[in-house]
Amino acid sequence: MPDWTSDFEARLAEGNSGYLDEQLFLDLIEQYLTSGKTDLAFATSREALLQHPFSVDLMCSQAAVLLEMEQPDQALDVLRHAAGISPGELDIQLLQVETLIELGRSNEAEIILSPFLQEGSHEDLADAWYFKAMIEEQRDQWLAMHHSLECAVRFNPRFQEALERLWLSTEMLGNYEESATFYNEILEQDPYAWQVWYNLGHAHSCLENYESAAEAFDYACVINEEFEHAWRDLGEMYLQLGKFEKAKEAFLTSLEKSESQDPDLLVKLGEAYEKNGERDLAVSTLKQVLVLDDKHDEALFRLGCIRVLESQFDEAVFYLEASIQINGDREEYYIALAEAYFQKGMMEQAEFCLNRAIELAPEQSSYWLQYASFLLQHGSLSEALDILETALSQQDSPELDYARIACLFKLGKRQEACQALCLQLAEDFDAHQTLFDVAPELSTDPDVISLVRAFRTEA
Predict the structure, then answer these.
(1) Interhelix angle for 381-394 vs 365-377, to 10°?
(2) pLDDT tens digits for 282-324?
(3) Using CA atoms, how far apart are residues 361 and 158, in angstroms rounded to an integer?
(4) Residue 45 to residue 40: CA distance in whole angstroms
(5) Which member of 132, 135, 289, 372 lies 3.0 to 4.6 Å from 106 by CB, making a disulfide possible if both were Cys?
(6) Closest by Cα among 302, 297, 262 to 286
């Protein structure tokens, strides 16, 4: 903002701002609104209307300020006065619609809005459909709201507010495939619409199309280099794809664009360092998080995992126990702590953690498998078999089936085990390595080797 505005603000405070033309006042109000100085924006609009009492544009500007200040009743009074001076003015009517929606008077808003949904400039049509979506949101008409937001974006592919709300409605409805198709259509119309690329990235991410998601986020970053959230999400996709060097670079760029040190973002950077083999940098980054927030459970968890990898089990237990004290509902925290306890010979504590992880995430077959493996290593064969049969009663998992067969062999039930192995090899040969992971001695068992070779030939 130019230096002369300081003089204007001083004179405004004294009640003697001096004469300014209408457009200059409009520009000042817009700049104050954009910078979040709503009180100053309102004071400027009031002074402007004293000097230009019949300016409909200034009245609309003041109404917008009042809406920002959450004073819709006063905004509506200003707009009624403006409509008396210039009946049928589109800007006035659209602002009236927005104000009525804010007041919860959707029926009145809809009556005013209806004529503007068919004709007008693309920008005006986009605004009209956006307000229609807001009315439908108030009525919990989610599908209709989604359709209206799509219409708004078709008329204005760079309508940021509509695109942000469109993504929220997509998450609510879960229609990710349809949304991806829609965003691709919009990008054919306007390939430089960075917010559309960003939404497309989220749609692909929810569909677990991580390569496509990374590509979409990358385009959003290239078009709008200052879009910090796109850099962050790009880093997330690179983590999913195992491209840890690229993930690190994306997170570092996101930090550069961010206005403050975000602990959550630093944790992601620490994760990227760790998975990229740069443990010292990971540890220093995660400890930096704890300086900012000493109760950041994920930072404590990641430090604990690194210490497990480094065989520093006492320190690992310290960090992992601290993470669980802060957040006791993350199953992966218990799994990591179970491993640390196991390495320290604290078997009861390890078993408790494995049980807790299964309680929190019974759908995770890997946790059941880890628990069964733990029991097998301690000679609790029957208990391991019970655990696996319980897991298999709740979900289909070839890995769990092979682990159960390994238990049967260990319990000496060879006939039952061989019959089950034949059936499992026929059904899912590719997962048979689990059999040898759970019971390495079976890799030299003649009967097992013979069966595996027979089914490998068939496969």
Answers:
(1) 170
(2) 999 999 999 999 999 999 999 999 999 999 999 999 999 999 9
(3) 41
(4) 9
(5) 135
(6) 302
